[in-house]
Amino acid sequence: MTGTTSNTIRRFARSSTDGSATELPSSVRTVVDESLSPPDRSLPAALCTVAGECSDDAADHRVNPDIDRLERVLEPVGDAVRYLEGYVRLRLAMGSVGGNAGVTAEPATDWLAEPSVDRDAAILASDSLHATAYATIAETPLPDDRLLELYRLLTQGSTALAHRSFPQFDTETPVNARVSVEATLAGVAGALGVTAVGGSTETRRCLRRYSHAIMIALASQSTVGTDDTRPRATAIAVLSGQRTPRIVEPRARVKHCSSTVTNALERARTALEPLDSDAISREVDRVSAETLPPLVRLERATRLPFQDGRT
To answer: Which residue stretches belong to region Disordered (predicted)?
Structure first.
């Protein structure tokens, strides 16, 4: 990739958003704001970040990773993932509407907060979020070849998400369609995180599969009781290395789950095995989440959000 190509990507991305933030009507800006998860409450962004930490260099927990370098690279990529998440959130909401009077979001408390918004405002907001995701990727401080690869992944992911976000415009969009879309977004997020820090193709493949599977488990769990967002919150805390107050013993029994959730969790664990299964087995019983290596946090996220006694 030449510098000319890199500059072309950046100019194109900037041109798609130049002036858009200030020119959006207030009603549209409100929808944009409502659609964005805060950085510490976005599961796709958490998956993106921890996947980046699991790149070839950062995953070796015998060597201290360059935290500043990781943050400089992963923060804008995580922001791009949040914009893409907001875009997907609105597209899912629009896919659930039957008429032209408004847009009714699916009944998931961690998605669009407003129960109904104007369709035109939602379309404009989703277009703005989508363009901003590209612009944010384009401004990431990376070598040209890696920037192009990120751009390709984002383009491929956007295409896949668009196909899954518009199954039909009826009033009974199946719940499993939402799960499929969320899982696709998570897989894209994981792949972007690994690619941003120069991780190997194998690492990207494994963490894309992991992210896809763990999101299927979490999204399927929330479709059973949509008022309970604690599994997602717990997963974000574990993946991010935050302390998780009132959490049960790491080896406590995983509560009864549907076959969909159980199978997805098994696929997530299997996806981690090629990376460093020995490291996981050595570290998995450590108590403090703050000091756990990223691979161990990924493994714990397949158990802690689903355990008996979770509070």
So the answer is: 13-40
